[in-house]
What we know:
- This protein has helices at residues 10-26, 32-39, 43-55, 95-105, 152-157, 165-175, 185-196, 209-218, and strands spanning 60-61, 68-71, 74-75, 81-85, 88-92, 109-114, 121-126, 138-141, 160-162, 181-184.
- The protein contains 8 helices and 10 strands.
- The strands form 2 sheets. It has a 7-stranded antiparallel sheet, covered by helices on one side. A 3-stranded antiparallel sheet has the order 9-8-10.
- It has 2 domains: 5-71, Orthogonal Bundle (Arc Repressor Mutant, subunit A); 77-221, Beta-Lactamase (2-Layer Sandwich).
- It is globular and about 55 Å long.
Amino acid sequence: MSPDAGWASPEARRVRGEVFATFAREGRPPSVAELEVMAELDRDRVLAALAELDDAHALVLTSAGDGIRMAHPFSAWPMGFVVRGGDRLWWGGCAWDSFGIVAALGERLSILTICPHCGRELSYGAGPQDPPDADRVVVRVPRPAAEWWDDVVATCTAIRSFCSTAHLECWLADTGEPPGARVELERLWQLALPWYGDRLDPDWRPRSLEQRQEMLERAGLRGPFWQLGG
């Protein structure tokens, strides 16, 4: 996909801006009816714009195709992570997306999740200039980068934070799940900042494959597991 102004129709870009603004402001996606008013489009054109954005991986629709499931880094319903700023709450799609909300909003926020192995609550904070304040927490990324969009909701659901490497190892032994890759929390935060930092920009446009690959490499994520698909 070419990262230029022609990556999507003007209607789709307008709808996308309203979707992300609503997520940031209210912690939820707008309905199709709301988008009709916000974007000044009729229902058919809103649905066509949403389908266009889904095809471009600019957001993820529900299985019915008439609602928004995710607009990375935001999720429309619980996926294991709560991101909090004062009395405002968002659902983080995964450990990475939770830092993405920090990056997109440009604020220090707190993140709450549960270790999949022991069930212990994990709470840590992070900001655009403040690394996460959790020493031993490690994140499992379940599948290679080239496969992330094969089922992006399943991919995000499985990117979880564990109390420690030992708890991750015990969980893998108990479940028989493939090891995937383990990533330090701070490294994932470093990746999220540039990856998601411009998501609220009304003129946002998708980055090229080469640009995204460079972001992974700058965060120290190199090798076959981290090679993106075409």
